[in-house]
Amino acid sequence: MLTAVFRGHETFVIFGVLISLVVGFATYKIARSRGGANIAAPIWAAGVAAVILLTSWSTGGTAGPSTCVINRDLAEPFLGEQGLLNLAMFVPLGFVGVIATGRFLLPVCSMVLLSFGIETAQGLFPALGRACDTSDLEMNGIGVVVGALLGAALLQLWRKSRRTSSVRSKTNWVVGGSYVLIGVIALMWIKPNAMDRTQDISTASSQQTQVADRVLRQAFDGHYHLRAVDFAHGPDGTGTVTALFAGGSIEITWPGAQQATASLDPLNGQGYPVPGRPQHASTSSEARRIAISYAQVHAPWALTDSVVTTSPVGQHAERGWIVSWRRHREDVLMPMRLDIQIERTGRLSAFIMRKIADPPLPPTHVTRQNAILAARSHSPGGAQAHLQGATLLAKQSKGRWIVQWLVALETPDQDVTAYVDAYSDKVLSVSRVLKVATGHS
Hints:
InterPro entries: VanZ-like. Residues 71-151 form the VanZ-like domain. This is VanZ family protein. The structure is a single chain. This protein has helices at residues 10-33, 40-56, 81-101, 105-124, 134-158, 165-189, 206-220, 284-298, 368-376, and strands at residues 67-71, 191-195, 201-203, 226-233, 239-245, 248-254, 259-264, 272-273, 307-312, 321-326, 328-329, 332-333, 337-342, 347-354, 386-397, 400-410, 414-421, 427-434. By secondary structure, the chain is an alpha+beta fold. The protein has four domains: 10-195, no CATH class; 200-264; 273-356, SHC Adaptor Protein, CATH 3.30.505; 368-434, Nuclear Transport Factor 2, Chain: A. Strands 3, 4, 5, 6, 7, 8, 9, 10, 13 and 14 form a ten-stranded antiparallel sheet that branches. It has a four-stranded antiparallel sheet with strand order 15-16-17-18, covered by helices on one side. Strands 1-2 form a two-stranded parallel sheet. β11 and β12 form a beta hairpin. The radius of gyration is 31 Å and the shape is elongated.
């Protein structure tokens, strides 16, 4: 709700400030005419006017269905700047409201009603370009309560109290009736859209930051230091922790940190110098020796019973070589993985480390040929599709390890990848990638 949408619209900002000042001044004059001298009331009125103007400003939306996001993750708004700004915006309203009225529940209920009305209006009128989101209502409400508690504590300190029971009774009826009215409007005309979360990326938690710091220090012997850490949410509490540091980044699977993927920028001299190794690699053998030296210290778990291969990066190894470790058990590719890229400067510029112990696997019954036939049945080219490869691999599915055939096929128009259960020959998933036309006109 507090997205920076006013850049280039300074006229509206000035107009909004003037309206808020006018509302505050009018409230002050009315209070004076009735014998009141509480300056908090006009400040409260001006603040309410400013919030209404701020949240009703159109960002250029278009007509569409009236919807409102119901965010099931109540903790998510606390992890982002947007949620904290929404909370902070309503703290002054709760504080000044208590000072102005001498009560607690009345300003709290009134300001929560204000937020409820704003979110309903944003959901009801998509043309405003504002999203109705229960996270905003949650944080606004918490902000009001925090401000009201501060105001109540200050009033108690000043030993002040006011009693206006007749007005209170009337006001309570108005506030309660407004809740009912807005609630009925929301239920009748706004479609709820329940979501597990509203943000795919948020600031990492302290625990995730600690894990990222530990992995980074272990991978590069404390050579780099964290600058920022984010978390990209996946299904069922999983996701990816991304840590930025000077010259690169590292991504870590969450939870468990089983895989780490690092990428550095060697073009700016940010590649990692492997200790004790020469600062050049003119051949694949030299690059391999440097990679092995690094792996012996940082990934010894990948060296036992593994097959090592070296592949050039670029047609003439312009970007060095990738040294890879893979392990097979009874012709099944294990989930363990280690890839290290060594530049011609002898520096490490990237790696993928997947530290997973060889799991126990179920028996397999599907032959390579039957797996290919099953994959072809789901390929647009059928029997004419060109076979690029078929690999038997271990893969985790729904918390258990299974064995699948990974079959890669090629047609004139598409690249097709199929996963076939090695126990039942059932095709579990198929992905198709269209080829980009390169013909000349």
